[in-house]
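This entry is listed below:
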Amino acid sequence: MTSSVRAANRLGPGRTTAARVPLDSVTLELDDPLEREILWRYDHVRGTNCTTTALSNLSRHFGLELSEELCLGIGGGLGFTYFRGAGVPYFLAFGRSDDLEINFARAVGYDIALQSAPNAKVAWRSVIHELHATGPVMLDTDAGKLHYPGKSGTVAWSDASHGGHKLVVIGWHPQSAEVTLCDYLWSDPQRIPISNLWAAWQSDPGPAMATHHYWYKLLVPTEFVALPHAIREGVRLNLFRMTEPWNRFYGIAALRGFLKGVCEWRYVVPEAKRCRQAKLVFASLETGGTGKGAFRRMYARFLREAADILGEPAFLELGREYLALARKWSELAGLLAEGAEHPERGIYADRPENEQLTRELLSGEEAALARLGQIALTWA
């Protein structure tokens, strides 16, 4: 079974035509899609972040060539979240915006909808139908519960369970009850038992994000939105989300709260929890698919690409500012790594240099965001 192939062009100044990629599979002539063997030919490129890798590779599959960094910027991915809710034993901090995949898809012209179902069997039937009808399917899973044969896990320690981890299903093998999928950390597709995937597809790890058989239904447009327009819309959305957040736990307010409060953790976090606290936030800002530097390094690369596409030289200078901020975030992450080893060291040490670093980060973030806003005001 194949689908017709149309021109697969890079999204340029005008509009481009989406392309469907042919199947590389043997499909049994049975009525029930659950009984059909299917494997899509899929160009999976290993990436930096699970969501941006999935978006970049999926878009290429459908005829839209975009880097991970462009996916991040178009999706309004620059952000900050900081909170400790009722019943949450630790402060949680993240350097990226939420709903990146939804924002990106709408900006470039996809019709996208987050789907779910009461149980895995019902949801999986819908995924398989989508796999046959449209192509590879993006799922939301728990990174701490995924296990690939002969490979280390997607997280650095066994109890770091959290939803929000995106992967792409490209094949289904009913006779062996196995699924072929692509995950950002590995260059090759992974074939695993469906029971493994289902264990990671339904999870409620407590204070972290839950996942409940979530998958994304895509309607691929015949034409994608022009790239310059999509970039500008992504920047405008990012500015709005950062400066006018829907609650105080997100955006510039959350960033201020974190940078003004992290050096005070030594007074409010019990000593027995300090190492774990520092380890969690170190991972979420530096090593957990952030590209290092709380996503600021990735955003700097987005600005460099956008400068060339838009003919916007001011983005080049702003990109250098975000790269400098990324280095400072990595320096702060180093203090968190020290605190993860000892409850009196690193971020928990009473040192003036720690507070100086957080003040510099806050002033730099506020200045960079203001400059981004000034550039956006020049657009018609």
User: Anything to note?
Assistant: The longest strand covers residues 165-173. The CA atoms of residues 28 and 322 lie 52 Å apart. The mean pLDDT is 88. The chain has two domains: 16-65+111-219, 227-377.
